[in-house]
Amino acid sequence: MSKPKVNEDICIGCGTCESLCPKVFKLEDGKSHVVTDECGDCDCQEVIGSCPVNAISMEE
Question: What pTM value is reported for the model?
Answer without folding.
Answer: 0.90
